[in-house]
Amino acid sequence: MHAPMRRAHETPAEVDLSGINLNLMVALDALLQEAHVTRAAARVGITQSAMSHALAQLRELLGDALLIRGRGGMMLTPRAEQLCAPLKRGLAELRRALRHEPPFEPATASRRFTVATRDYFGSVLLPGALELLGREAPGVDLVVQHVEDNTYPELLERGEVDLAVIVTPKVEASPGLRQRKLFTEDFVCVVRKDHPAVRRKLDLHTYLELSHILISPRGDGVGAVDRTLAQRGLPPRRIALRVPYFLIAPLVVTRSDYVLTAPRRLIAAFSEEYALQVFPPPLPVPPFNIVEVWHERFDGDPAHQWLRGLVARAVNTGSENTRSSRRVRRAPAS
Predict the structure, then answer these.
(1) CB 136 within 8 A of CB 107
(2) Order of strands across the sheet with 259-263?
(3) pTM above the 0.85 mark?
(4) Sign of the dihedral through C-alpha 14, 18, 20, 25
(5) Which domains does the chain have, with CATH numbers?
């Protein structure tokens, strides 16, 4: 039975939570996630008939079919799709509120944290983070997943990601997010050793004559170099290759005559082991800030406070190497 339609000017009635079985909300969450009665039943550990009965109760309670049959199986109604995210967040909050957790002690903790970042930032923070984890928290596991600019705020809000390490957002991503600066990064230019056009220095004329690699996670747009060239009224560079990952680009340089302008810390990780020449950019390219971002709900959580401090210290463990890499080595004259 469907609930009577509400007129446009009517105020929605308050829901009497005292009359709702919480188990129905757990069943609803499983149904929305699985879009399949049998799989939803297995997810929460009940029989298929019990889940079918719960679906009938939910349809009566919400006045909506929630799941309807389509060509490829069951499909969510628009009302069901609207419920997915808020229901998932609400149940997660309730679980956290009811869960009794002992004080967080890194040395004895058994826990998993998820950090969303990109491969460059992962290469900067992971070595130091793993070193610190091994010493201080051997029972803590770390999951690193790729981050997209338009998805991390929701992932942080839902608690699916504990921390994001990103470039400072150009605009406020969400009023519920907090951030802390980890470090400021600048750029260097790199070509292979024995490059036919680059010897002891890289001047602007040579730089613009070369073919360039652009690291572009989405495969489009321009970089800081291109914006600087345009602001100075200089001709555009030729971007001969776009790659989506930071760690690919230096390897391509070693086997080509391309030039790469990239973050200093990234190049520092490669220049020692690969045949690369590193130079300061022949024109000033603005630096950028790297920040860690979390949701305000976890401001006072001791485990999250420890995680944020760990990431900050992990970045700093490589600071000595980074500072030494600022003394750019020049190739000997040939």
Answers:
(1) yes
(2) 238-243, 211-215, 259-263, 187-192, 276-279
(3) no
(4) positive
(5) 19-98 (1.10.10.10), 111-182+291-323 (3.40.190.10), 187-286 (3.40.190.10)
